[in-house]
Amino acid sequence: MYEWDFSPVLAEGGFLLVGFRNTLVLTATALSGGLVVGLLLAFARLSHRRWLKVPAGIVIEVFRTTPPLVQLFWFYFGLPIVLSIEMTPFLAASLTFMIQSGAFFAEIFRAGIVSIERGQWEAANAIGMTYNQCMRRVILPQAVKRMFPSMMERSIELMKTTTLVATVSYADLLFQANELAQKTFRPLEVFTVVALIYFVSISFISFIASRMERRFAKSGEFTP
Amino acid sequence: MSAPVLRLSGFGKQFGSLRVFSDVDLDVMPGDRIAILGASGSGKSTLLRCINVLETPSEGRLELDGELVGQPSRAGDMRFSERELCALRQRVGMVFQQFNLFPHMTVAGNVAEGLKTVRSVKSQKALERAVAELQRVGLADKADTYPSRLSGGQKQRVAIARALAMDPEILLFDEPTSALDPALVGEVLGVIEQLANEGRTMLLVTHEIGFAYHFATRILYLAEGGIYESGTPDEVLKNPKRPLTQQFLAEHRRFQF
């Protein structure tokens, strides 16, 4: 019978906390960058200009269809060789997850934008709005509401995917957990605590998200 | 004799190999009220949508107050810059069959939107103007409601107010009552009639032949890819001269009582 003993893990709690902080920093960086990249890629892919549309489509498809671990290795080990630059684990991870999540966000944005009825574009055009004005005042405000659930889903996915950076020795939560497990010989306890930290923080985000969704719905202006 | 506000010449539209209409010549004088009739598929809506270039016309010219809109390309069709389109559409308002109100804005927000965003009118001023336009269509009390709370007839009246807020020289109505409950048609036609009494220049695509008779100064009957017959309501609707017009009207009279 295995004897659970959390005390050595809790004694080194600060060690895990450092990892958790790093995970949050990386997730926040990748998320905010990813949203910007996603919006740009979505607009580029929706554009009528081929020189924008085609490359955007390629970037989106490549990053959606290749494993994130391979992308990370490519940025961390490959890019420095190709461009002969210095690469830190944090920079490589930020770039990877920004573009990777950006590719997914782009498809979410695009789907949200094209889901708005043609009549909305026409009505906005018919009072003299430019393409950009239509987008900003009429299309995006409606599309964002429709995109919100899948955007949240993707952000949670992103937070969990960042655990891959442990493989390039960025001191995120999982990396720190590994270290601690080797130090204390208590891997089961360590990883249980890690799972709990993820469970609590992601549940918290989900809770906030569903609250916001309900507030959107309550603002009442939806027409089915 | 004044000059036409709108002149179409050699106007045509093709979707791929499908020719919807061609060689349409039309002068619209200030105060003209033109009802466009025709069987479904005769291209009446397309013609209307080509006038504010929601559909790009494939051939011919469009002049507003004697000025050509767009530049002819080398291929012979017209090219329109975004700036020209925005200017044109502010002068030629449109009301749609499906209303197309902005669901995320209040009723007053819908009406004020063009002023605020396109004309950069201050929010407060734009809203005052919006309420005044809503008053005209009898909906000032709904200013703060969202469109989803309105009946179809009310939605369409808001859509009319939204178009009016831009002070268009010409108003286009694309089957404004076709999506409405029969009981709600009257209130929308009432508003259009009131605009007619103000002497506004309007083009109306409709299936309400009775209304067209009372409303229009001129009727266009579209068939065979063009204007098939035109004239005053009495000429076209009481004494149609050409066979397709006669057939169309006979069909409509079949179930009259």
Automatic annotation (TrEMBL), chain A:
Its Gene Ontology cellular component terms are: ATP-binding cassette (ABC) transporter complex
- Annotated ranges, domain ABC transmembrane type-1: 20-209
Q: Which InterPro entries match?
A: AA_ABC_transptr_permease_3TM, ArtM/GltK/GlnP/TcyL/YhdX-like, MetI-like, MetI-like_sf
Q: What is its main location?
A: membrane
**GO MF annotation: an example:** transmembrane transporter activity
What NCBIfam families does the record tag this protein with?
HEQRo_perm_3TM (TIGR01726)
Q: What does this protein do?
A: Part of the ABC transporter complex GltIJKL involved in glutamate and aspartate uptake. Probably responsible for the translocation of the substrate across the membrane.
Q: Which family does it belong to?
A: Belongs to the binding-protein-dependent transport system permease family. HisMQ subfamily.
Description of how the protein assembles with itself and partners: The complex is composed of two ATP-binding proteins (GltL), two transmembrane proteins (GltJ and GltK) and a solute-binding protein (GltI).
Q: Mind telling me what this protein is named?
A: Glutamate/aspartate import permease protein GltK
Q: Say which species the protein is native to.
A: Roseibium album
Automatic annotation (TrEMBL), chain B:
Q: Which Pfam families match?
A: ABC_tran
Enzyme Commission no: 3.6.3.-
Q: Which GO terms describe its cellular component?
A: plasma membrane
Q: What is its membrane topology? A: Peripheral membrane protein
Q: Does the keyword RNA-binding apply?
A: no
Main localisation: membrane
Where found?
Answer: Cell membrane
In the record, which residues are listed under signal peptide? Answer: none
Q: Give residue ranges for domain ABC transporter.
A: 6-249
Please tell me whether the keyword Cell membrane is annotated for this protein: yes
Q: Name the chain's protein.
A: L-cystine import ATP-binding protein TcyN
**UniProt cross-references to SMART domains, sorted A to Z:** AAA
The organism named in the record is Roseibium album
Q: MF terms per GO, please?
A: ABC-type amino acid transporter activity; ATP binding; ATP hydrolysis activity
Q: Which gene encodes it?
A: tcyN
Q: What class of enzyme is it?
A: hydrolase
**What keywords would UniProt list here?**
Amino-acid transport, ATP-binding, Cell membrane, Hydrolase, Membrane, Nucleotide-binding, Transport
PANTHER family linked: AMINO ACID IMPORT ATP-BINDING PROTEIN, GLUTAMATE_ASPARTATE IMPORT ATP-BINDING PROTEIN GLTL
Lineage summary: Bacteria, Pseudomonadati, Pseudomonadota, Alphaproteobacteria, Hyphomicrobiales
SUPFAM superfamilies for this protein: P-loop containing nucleoside triphosphate hydrolases (SSF52540)
Family named by the database record: Belongs to the ABC transporter superfamily.
